[in-house]
Amino acid sequence: MSSQQSYAYSLEDGIVSPKSISRDNKRDAQRSEADSSAFSSEYDDNDTNVVDQMTRTVATFIDKQPKRVKREVFAPAGKLGIIVDTSSDGPIVHSIKADSPLVGKVFTGDYIIAVDDEDTSDWSAHYVTKLVARKSGSVRKLTLMSNNWDD
Question: pTM for the full model?
Answer without folding.
Answer: 0.56
